[in-house]
Write a structure and sequence with these properties.
mainly alpha; 75% helix
Length: 85
């Protein structure tokens, strides 16, 4: 989970610089990364182990979803911003 989190931070910093530079591919990259991050968060929140219970405690699963809220805000703000020519 730490490696996935570190990769996510690096990826968001990379796309932030791409958006600032006005790269055309930045918006689709941001959407793709948001979907991948939300999928990883939901997997941690909802996956069941062999006992039938969720693999992570609910508090830890919800904590894994918290960065998705920041990502959702970033995506919303990106789409409100005018598209570069």
């Amino acid at each position: 989970m730490t490696a996935i989190g570190a990769f996510g931070v690096i990826a968001w910093l990379w796309t932030t610089s791409a958006v600032k530079a006005g790269k055309r591919w930045a918006r689709p990259a941001v959407i793709t990364m948001f979907v991948l991050g939300a999928s990883v968060g939901l997997t941690g929140l909802l996956i069941k182990d062999t006992s039938g219970e969720t693999g992570l405690p609910p508090a830890l699963g919800c904590a894994g979803m918290a960065p998705c809220l920041a990502g959702l805000l970033a995506v919303a703000l990106l789409w409100r911003r005018p598209r570069p020519v």
